[in-house]
Amino acid sequence: MFHKIGAGGYIEPPFHTDYGTNTTIGQHFYANYDAIFVDVNRITIGDNVFMGPRVGLYTAGHPIDAAIRAEELEYAGRLQSVMTFGLAVTWSSIRASRLEVTS
């Protein structure tokens, strides 16, 4: 399903993704229930990452200007997260296209 997943990777069902093939996961990964990976663009997750329930990683977005949004435009940005040692991160931003957490 994924572009790559390292040894010791496990995702509790249910799990939802757009493609899966745009996601790369390092070793010793764990995602709790209801994870959502909207991988319209690349998602890269490092080693030793543990995610809580209902964590969502989203690379897709839509314009916030109503006139432009009415044109049904969308965009995607690369999401690269290097999360280690059970760090829990909640990330949400309209303008950011990349997240990198290193400690």
From TrEMBL:
Provide the alphabetized UniProt keywords.
Acyltransferase, Transferase
Signal peptide range in chain numbering:
none
The record's annotation in InterPro entries points to: LacA-like (IPR039369), Trimer_LpxA-like_sf (IPR011004)
Source organism superkingdom? Bacteria
Q: Does the keyword Iron apply?
A: no
* Top EC group: transferase
EC assignment: the record states 2.3.1.-
Q: Which GO terms describe its molecular function?
A: galactoside O-acetyltransferase activity
Supply the PANTHER family for this chain.
Answer: ACETYLTRANSFERASE YJL218W-RELATED, GALACTOSIDE O-ACETYLTRANSFERASE
Family recorded in the similarity comment: Belongs to the transferase hexapeptide repeat family.
This chain belongs to which protein, by name? Answer: Acetyltransferase
